[in-house]
């Protein structure tokens, strides 16, 4: 029995060193007190024995006090005002040590905590509310007794802390008091009649209450080197970041998404341990974490997990979590959690396992990972920076994520491409349809055109039969009678006849017959050369975009070889134009002509045409090939039209003057005749 | 110690650790005992590392907390953390594996060194269903067990042979040990009674409240 109690009371101390005991290879001398007094030392006491450690602490305390005084003296060297202030604050500090310089922190904080307790404490308030909720129905005297126990406990612990007792003594006092309270619960008249579960609850709440109140002075106390230990273990875990589940013979499959989620849950639970205050709550965090680990294991292997699998998995989780203040938390729980709870029950078991995991991590060697010494050293020194499976899985997950994202993008792109392709197909069909429609309308118009012209002729010419003979001069003479004001019109009928002749020709040679278009183009061309914007208004029927085609037609028009050229010209320049951007291709071979003409307008338009080209590349290519074949003939003809160019501009001016262009009539035939007239007039000049 | 906290006089809490090499059947053994199942597929608990078993022996309510331990050699050094303050230890070996028996021997040595006779030991030769492959004879094992003050059992978790008996015997032994402890501490208590009021913090003093509690039990 005494042995057992001893083990319990010294639980953690024992626990942490017991791991080394089975393989005791430490020299006896190493275990002795550093002072050489002959007694055994303890790492918790900086290698001193208990007596020497106390002396050592006292010495340190004195040293710090001395330092504080020195600092005070220093500050006295300030100006009088400051000195005065200082004195005042010194006076104050007698009552509120909080305001003293933080040089001797240890002594400062304790009284501060005292006052802190007496004043309202949010934690205490919360606990009070919890207490009233759970035990509100209990009798007044019982509650009074309960808080009397609490007050006594807090006072005792605080006096102990203020006396700067080593934490081990405080622990013993606390554990003893837990037992006292437990006995009180079982024996005192006020509590005896309570059902056992309520008594257990009261015991738990007692512990929770006092520990939450005293947390700041008992957690990671100044008298210990807990903080250093925290840093050591943290550094150690960081160094061991390369350890993966495989090294630990742990069946956690790091790449499975569900498993990863569960592992993350476990890690979060473990990290939560640092954020709660009562040892009981901390213990609950450990239990939650371990349950998550159990779930992970069940997920990975199926069936209940035994300790053989559980411990490696827990070690893995601790390594990956690297919880803050791990050692402080463990020590705090071992010191101030009711020992009996720590020794039994599920919580005790899991906490023990956590201690085992930490102990294993601290004493981890190459052998414990079944690894060659050199390899282990290389890992530890960072020579081998192998990406552990955990990280690589992270990367893999990242990669998978990216892959999925990229696939989505690709899918989206392919969808959009099909849409575009469909659109282009539809556009092509539309174009084809439009082309056909236009051809049809054109052919209809063509059929109609001679008919339209004839009635036009008839009112003018007195002898329709005369016309039939085709005497150009006769017609022009008659025309002269009709309209003398416009000399260009002299050749109107002559031209008309030509066109009519031409139309016949095209009908014979080309399926595609767009005579009216050509004519429009011709008209437009004359205007395009002109710089004044008014001319464009004349062309308001909207076909002005075909302007650049016209140079050709014009040359050919004034050319003596007009009739020979027209067939090619029509198919070449005009066909594509009205159908929108397709016609832009014609601009390609027009470019060389433009500079001679030096009309900026045309150049600009070709530019815009070029830009248009970019959008209809596939179609343009097709057209270009067909056009290029015909192109040769045009190019051959080019030199001849070159010369008349200069004189041409003059004619265009004349064309401007033509007021009778019935732009908005929509009757192309009329326009036809008119533009032809302009070209013919050019010939005249 | 664990039992001491319990207020009612006829109930005990005992902590039992399972020690032994990996793959000797520690988990199967405890699962057979607590759940009476062998095949892992039918077991309802998600973990077999910590199990509670409630018993009624001689009219006393007994709660066994059975702690499974990691058997791998690399975790051997962690043993003390597991078995501290436990009332009993079940040392399991595989009768077809001589090495696992040697491992048990080393555990016994360690336990005796660390805990003395405080802990009740049971040595279990598991997997008797594999009799034909036996490498450790019954006689050897029993002789050794008697020499170290342990009880020897042979079990088969698969066939459910001897498992219940083994745990029952262990429980009886633990109760016996506990009674002795109580008696001893009671006499100690009488010796130290005059010191009970002194507030000097000594190891004996620490026991004081515990003793009172034990006395009540």
Automatic annotation (TrEMBL), chain A:
GO BP of this protein: vesicle-mediated transport
Tree of life domain: Eukaryota
Domain A20-type span(s) in chain numbering: 27-61
Pfam families: DUF5601, VPS9, zf-A20
Naturally occurring in which organism (per UniProt): Henosepilachna vigintioctopunctata
Domain VPS9: 227-370
Gene Ontology CC, one term: endocytic vesicle
MF terms (GO), sorted A to Z: DNA binding; guanyl-nucleotide exchange factor activity; small GTPase binding; zinc ion binding
PANTHER family attached to this UniProt entry: RAB GDP/GTP EXCHANGE FACTOR (PTHR23101), RABAPTIN-5-ASSOCIATED EXCHANGE FACTOR FOR RAB5 (PTHR23101:SF122)
InterPro entries, sorted: DUF5601 (IPR041545), VPS9 (IPR003123), Vps9-like (IPR045046), VPS9_dom_sf (IPR037191), Znf_A20 (IPR002653)
Listed name of the protein: Rab5 GDP/GTP exchange factor
Entries under SMART domains matching the protein: VPS9, ZnF_A20
Aminoacyl-tRNA synthetase found in the keyword field: no
UniProt keyword list: Metal-binding, Zinc, Zinc-finger
Automatic annotation (TrEMBL), chain B:
CDD domains: Rab21 (cd04123)
Organism: Henosepilachna vigintioctopunctata
Biological process per Gene Ontology, one example term: protein transport
Keywords: GTP-binding, Lipoprotein, Membrane, Nucleotide-binding, Prenylation, Protein transport, Transport
Annotated compartments: Endomembrane system
PANTHER family reported for this sequence: PTHR47978
GO MF annotation, one: GTPase activity
Membrane topology: Lipid-anchor
InterPro entries: P-loop_NTPase (IPR027417), Rab21 (IPR041833), Small_GTP-bd (IPR005225), Small_GTPase (IPR001806)
SUPFAM superfamilies: P-loop containing nucleoside triphosphate hydrolases
Family: Belongs to the small GTPase superfamily. Rab family.
Principal cellular location given in the protein's record: membrane
An example Gene Ontology CC term for this record: endomembrane system
UniProt KW Ribosomal protein keyword: no
Name listed for the protein in its UniProt record: Ras-related protein Rab-21
